[in-house]
Specification:
This protein is of the alpha/beta class. Helix content is 45%, strand content 9%. The protein has an eight-stranded parallel beta sheet. Helix 1 (3-10) runs antiparallel to helix 15, helix 6 (109-117) runs parallel beside helix 15 and helix 8 (177-193) runs parallel beside helix 10 (229-250). The structure holds zinc ion. Residues 19, 21, 126, 342 line the site of zinc ion.
Length: 412
């Protein structure tokens, strides 16, 4: 087998996506090119996505964003999915637009993209707009419970970056820290009982990731009229301790966004004391901690309870994903690496899959070529990262109806 054959073989592998924000059904029916781009990472690039067919605007936008990883992979995905041989340009813009609109007249197209084209057997859904939902497709989406709002329950006016406040959501008005933590524990147990397979912490969009041990007296002060920054930190430290304890007790992994976000001490290394205080928690550190990717490799090397989730990273920077994967193979056991698309639409999920398969093909085949890995090890590794490892993780959540794992021996 040569590299091209290996790359082609990768495209047939099943996947369990570790992290997705796939939008509810009703958001896909009227998908156009502009809406698709607006719900992709290209909307984060600082140049507004063109809304009409104005050639000058489209060309200016393509000149600005057209070589970024986000764009390159989405364009490849759209060309493949809609059988268009011409790159996206002012000239082909309407053709892409029409192809997308036409395809989504089939209301199931967005699910077909995930199940057939992305080969998803399941996807962990972080529906931050309604934490814990499965978009009405329990066979495909396994909900995770986003915990951010728990960290903002100290006052009725506090809000996380999604506008969440746990007490307001629950309609409670607790002002005692111990009573509050009891409610948090109850809510996390309920999340598991309702089918959630993991907890997800996206606090890097709200604050830094340095969590000290809790000071209960100080945390109580956060409920006062004018809590200071340290009172709130103490409160959040106590909440993080409770989340970790629940994660261990309920046997649900804790996904933590690391790297980008506010970039205020959001490097994964900030979590090392939290990780060492909770050896019984499976910490899934997301996005390769980009741009501090070496942190993830170091933490995986030292802590057996740390998992590296490469979700989003190949789309942010394919080059960084390649570097980190190569490094992780050196230092991390193969059963602690997973991947997810981290996307809102089926098209961008497919783009993310193409990006990751390219990273896998480049890194693994280079290792086979240079004698650092045997071909059967490369095959086994790819299947583990795409599917088996995530299956093992979420299977712990029990009775979630996930499909049986396909054995590597059957993979050609
Ligand atoms: Zn995400």
């Amino acid at each position: 087998m040569d590299k091209a054959g290996f790359a082609e073989w990768l495209h047939g592998l099943p996947a369990i996506c570790s992290h997705s924000h796939h939008l509810p059904d009703k958001e896909h029916g009227d998908l156009s090119l502009a809406k698709l781009l607006g719900n992709s990472y290209l909307s984060w690039c600082g140049v507004p996505v063109p809304q009409g067919n104005d050639e000058a605007r489209i060309s200016a936008w393509l000149n600005a964003a057209g070589v970024r990883s986000y764009f390159v992979w989405l364009e490849k995905a759209l060309m493949a999915l809609y059988h268009i041989n011409e790159p996206l340009s002012a000239h082909s813009w309407a053709r892409y637009d029409q192809a997308i609109i036409q395809a989504h007249k089939d209301n199931n197209w967005h699910l077909t993209l995930l199940m057939k084209h992305c080969c998803y057997k399941a996807a962990l859904l972080d529906a931050y707009w309604a934490p814990g939902v499965d978009n009405g497709h329990p066979e495909l989406f396994k909900p995770v419970f986003r915990v951010n709002s728990l960290f903002y329950g100290y006052g009725q006016d506090a809000r996380d970056h999604n506008g969440g406040n746990f007490q307001r959501t629950r309609g409670s008005q607790i002002t005692d820290i111990r009573e509050y933590i009891a409610l948090v524990r109850r809510a996390l147990g309920e999340a598991k009982a309702s089918g959630c397979v993991a907890f997800k912490c996206a606090l890097a969009y709200d604050r830094d990731l340095d969590f000290a041990e809790g000071d209960w007296d100080r945390a109580q002060k956060a409920f006062g009229e004018h809590p200071d920054k340290e009172d709130i930190r103490a409160f959040q430290n106590i909440v993080m301790g409770a989340v970790c304890e629940a994660s261990a007790a309920l046997n649900l992994p804790l996904q933590i966004h690391t790297g980008l976000g506010l970039m205020d001490r959001s490097d994964a290394l900030q979590l090392r004391f939290l990780i060492s205080r909770h050896p019984e928690v499976s910490f899934i550190l997301m996005h390769g901690g980009y741009p501090w990717t070496a942190d993830i490799a170091g933490l995986c090397h030292n802590y057996p309870n740390v998992w590296a989730d490469l979700c989003w990273l190949p789309l942010i920077s394919t080059a960084a994903a390649e570097r980190l994967l190569d490094e992780l193979i050196d230092v991390c056991n193969a059963d602690r690496l997973i991947w997810g698309c981290d996307a809102w639409t089926g098209e961008e999920s497919y783009a993310a899959r193409l990006a990751f398969l390219e990273v896998l093909a480049r890194v693994l085949w280079r290792r086979v070529d240079s004698g650092m890995m045997r071909e059967e090890q490369a095959r086994r590794f790819a299947l583990m990262v795409l599917h088996d490892n995530a299956l093992m993780l979420v299977s712990r959540a029990a009775a979630n109806g996930l499909p049986l794992v396909r054995q590597p021996d059957n993979q050609g």
